[in-house]
Amino acid sequence: MGKKNKQFVEKVTAMEEDFAQWYTDVVKQAELVEYGQVRGTMIIKPYGYAIWENIKDELDKKFKETGHSNVAFPLFIPESLLQKEKDHVEGFAPEVAWVTHGGEEELTERIAVRPTSEVLFCDYYSNNIHSYRDLPKLYNQWGNVVRWEKTTRPFLRSSEFHWQEGHTAHATDQDAAEETDRMLGIYADLVEKYLAIPVLKGRKTDKEKFAGAKYTLTIESMMHDGKALQSGTSHHFGSGFAEAFDITYLDENGKSQYVHQTSWGLSTRIMGALIMVHGDNRGLVIPPRIAPTQAMIVPIAQHKEGVLDKAYELRDQLKNLVRVDIDASDKTPGWKFNETEMKGFPVRIEMGPKDIEKNQVVLVRRDTGEKEFIALAELQDRLPVLLEEIQQNLYEKAKAHREEKTSVAKNMDEFKAALEENPGFIKAMWCGDTACEEKIKEETTATSRCIPFEQEKVSDTCVCCGKEAKELVYWAKAY
Ligand SMILES: [Zn+2]
């Protein structure tokens, strides 16, 4: 075995042994990212970016279908502007990166590198919204933001990350509420239908909501190790920011009114979910609808006459049907098999001299490892169907896993036992008091993930204090 081969089959740590190390190994060996020079930053490599781009394209299409326009706002925020909304600045202050110098010269006012862009949009809206005719404003921007994190991990928590942030302004509270719901629905759809990850939809508690928001809606997903991941949030601001930034419009009766705003975001963190929900000890498993390469052709004994020609011919036949590629490099078939598995391509198409003789190929599914011999004449019908089967199977598997990892607790003893014995979501009733939420976090490190839209009553009393319960909450340890 050559040096290159040895390097590649270098073992990925088993996830049962050390999940965090498994994650780091996969991210590196599947060539998704590399660490940047400044601690906590990352270089997203071509394969990682191609996956993100597919997510991005799908979302962008949905944003535009629902009437949103893309814009690009500055990277910098003057300190005085960031200070304008009290809760907002308090929420973000500990993570802000500050620019203090321009060249050699010290600036008279510090400039923040945007941790999020609410204040920039609010400032803009206060100058550009005058009449009810100017509403709604439905803006989105694709960009990067900086939050100075103490502990960082690729995709999950990085000092700089890529995302989209939507910022909208509406005439009424009801309009803003509908927008908040609509965008959460778009996120849930993308994550469930494209990423094959089932989500819980719900509202954040006041303690966990966005700094400055009236309320925050969230989608939460369950990772393989039993930890939850917040996968997208949509915030209703009410008129709080509008009052701080004086964003008013004249209604149809000529009366001055505050606008009602929303913001919503989905970031490269979702890549972490993709890895941790579907991945296994052989590497990534990418759902077909989002996979940059849905099928990889691996020629066997490609030095033999006619094999490569036939493989290229096959690629050309399939390329308008699925996203297909061919590995015609001089690496061994074994190396190529490993790589298709590491990168999580949904299907591998093997084709050697014997297959060519029989007018067939071998299809190998990444999700189950199952092999299927299929006549060339039937391949164009079979392949898209197989990809859909894989997509469905990944979703069902993830859903079954989430169910397995969901417990019910009626008191703190049951809560702690569930966390210990079967880490995952815990469904428990809550009285609505932040003190109970804080106590649970302190005693167990689990946090409230959401108050699900689909409510159930698993008991009458709060899991923590025993007083009358108001609502069901999903709790979990989270990334
Ligand atoms: Zn309580």
How would you portray this structure in words?
- It is found in: Cytoplasm.
- Catalyzes the attachment of proline to tRNA(Pro) in a two-step reaction: proline is first activated by ATP to form Pro-AMP and then transferred to the acceptor end of tRNA(Pro).
- It catalyses: tRNA(Pro) + L-proline + ATP = L-prolyl-tRNA(Pro) + AMP + diphosphate.
- 36% of the residues lie in helices and 27% in strands.
- It has 479 residues and is an alpha+beta fold.
- The protein folds into three domains: 11-76 and 118-278, Bira Bifunctional Protein, Domain 2 (BirA Bifunctional Protein, domain 2, 2-Layer Sandwich); 295-389, 3-Layer(aba) Sandwich (Rossmann fold); 406-476, C-terminal domain of ProRS (Translation Initiation Factor IF3), CATH 3.30.110.
- The chain has an eleven-stranded mixed sheet, sandwiched between helices. Strands 16-15-17-18-19 form a five-stranded mixed sheet, sandwiched between helices.
- The longest helix has 29 residues, at 376-404.
- The two termini are 39 Å apart.
- It binds zinc ion.
Instruction: Report mean pLDDT, rounded to a whole number.
Output: 95
- Indicate the CATH topology of the largest domain: BirA Bifunctional Protein, domain 2
| Individual helix count | 15
> What's the helical proportion of residues?
25-40%
Which term fits the overall shape? globular
- Would you identify the CATH architecture of the largest domain? 2-Layer Sandwich
| Tally of structural domains | 3
CATH superfamily of the largest domain: Bira Bifunctional Protein, Domain 2
Query: Largest sheet, described in full?
Result: 11 strands, mixed
Bound molecules: zinc ion
Q: Low-confidence spans: pLDDT under 50, at least 5 residues?
A: 1-7
